[in-house]
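FYI - complex with iron/sulfur cluster, inputs then prediction.
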Amino acid sequence: MPVETKTTCPYCGVGCGVIAAVGEDGAVSVRGDPDHPSNYGRLCSKGSALAETIDLDGRILHPEIAGRQSTWDEALDLVAEKFSAAIAEHGPDSVAFYVSGQLLTEDYYVANKLMKGFVGSANIDTNSRLCMSSSVAGHRRAFGADTVPGTYEDLELADLVVLAGSNLAWCHPVLYQRLAAAKARRPGLKVVVIDPRRTMTADIADLHLAIRPDTDVALFAGLFSHLVKNGAVDQNFIAAHTMGFSEAFAAAVSFPEALERTGLPAMQLREFYRLFTASEKVVTCYSQGVNQSSSGTDKVNAILNCHLATGRIGRPGMGPFSLTGQPNAMGGREVGGLANMLAAHMEIESAEDRDRVQRFWQAPRIAEKPGLKAVDLFCAVAEGRIRALWIMATNPVVSMPDADAVEAAIRACPFVVVSDILRETDTARHADVLLPSRGWGEKDGTVTNSERRVSRQRAFLGAPGEARADWWQLAEVGRRMGFARAFAYDGASGIFAEHAALSAFENGGSRDFDIGTHAGIGPVAYDALSPFQWPQPAGRGEGETRFFANGGFYHPDGRARFVAVMPAAADRTDAAYPFTLNTGRIRDQWHTMTRSGKSARLSTHIAEPFAELHPRDALEIGVVPAGLVEIESPRGSVVVRALVTDRQARGSLFAPMHWNDQFAAKARVDTLVPPLTDRISGQPASKNVAVAARPFKAA
Ligand code: SF4
């Protein structure tokens, strides 16, 4: 009989439950977990192909120093020695960790504790910076904490679901399946898709708004005006629970201005405003099209303003809902895995919070100020300000904007550690020390999905070679740096228990994030832990708390904030670079394809890198369908297959970010993206890049 283990999909932020079965011959099969409340048995193509991605080809099986196999002791001693030396000579801010939404919460917790509490720097940032940091910043401005109030069930209960900058069908496929099924059951449920591209998601839309890139602020600031002028705001809610309404209204834009900036037909804009006004139960989901922008935080607040103005928050079937891209982007936020946050949603800028966390950790020091966010972190590496860098479970040489410059910076860094499962990633090949990590199916811990649901990832396979958990590697380095007592963990359950205890330490210092009921959890209960949504304060069970149900928010006065947002200039094109490039994902690949690229089945969906462009643009520049197109920005060029389609708006291109030099030469699309970021969140603007395009002519 196969042995079955309940675990969680390691790909997107939907966080589907998976049952993995290992047969007597060792063969692995997967199916959706019918009892998991995020997917109820569903899986998408990527989740269904998980068993095809867990072979040992290309795995790092032993630690390596400068390309030669070493023992764990040698490698860990060297890491501790180099980090300690850099700190002693150049100070705590001369070292950095760059981590990943692929890490489990327990890994994230130990990394954050080591860097912020024991090194004394906040130079720990994550590839989740590229995913949802604008939403974090927007929530903190509006709500006073990084609280995502939505649940998946809200989409099924809503009368109107607005999907802003979200290709749900490809990027959160099981949530899309749930929405599509709800719409089929209840045709009154309307869907509006806001996206410059006509994506697969738009196929179920009652209204697709193909706005100009980066004009979401104008769209929602115009909606805010419309709601006020049409008497559709909830004056009682505004008066009792918010601040800043008048200032936000003064900054809001008129209908003609919204029309002019978004480039939408008047009929469509009117229809969207009418639908939003007339529907009480509105859920607005937003994802990378909103977040990955130089105005990402303002976009988020423009959306939140509309929900606050109508009081459509904190009740079933309504509210704003940020969808996380990565499997554990939310878990990373919980433990302070961003350079500008402390553990358990506490504030690094707050002396009281710093003191609380330092005392809880019994740490010798605590980071006093925010650290370097991803783009700035790699700039600091390039400038020689970072002397020792540890990269965990991510491939920034492919995924960071200005990817060539990031590669040059890593190459020039005096000491680089990479913990990963694969030895030949574009980043791993620059490591001075390469550490073998456990992969999905081999490691134990928790992840938190977009609706704040914490689920277990459980091991059902033995670890290959000498691969060890990321938290173990960090704890061992912490011990060798002189902090043996603080990092004396003997398993993931103890780390989770400590994380839960910190969330409830001194009665709710963490504001919204509290999972204190799990503070005393032991290994057996941890192993059996069922998926649950936070908050779960001690003594209160799941389902009793809907965020903002009582109109209370997390600013000191308990009120939410409207934010006065103003549309910024969005067009970056000029005569030399006349096209706007939008980067993103495709349905069947994940990030830089280090795992999903192993599945032949997944590659049958789209087998090679490509760029979509409109037929008239293709005609004008002489690109033929399925021919090769060269795309160039001031930072470099790529050559990909042309996919000529009228789903793409004129003047724009779409290219996926997955492919790297292992799969096709000159295909790293992020080499084109400038290191331009949102001024508040630091999230890169990966969806509005001025480029030139031409037919490729081989030299
Ligand atoms: Fe995995 Fe996301 Fe697909 Fe669910 S929707 S199976 S979490 S990739």
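Residues 9, 11-12, 14-16, 39, 43-44, 46-47, 172-174 surround iron/sulfur cluster (CB under 6 Å). The longest strand covers residues 636-644.
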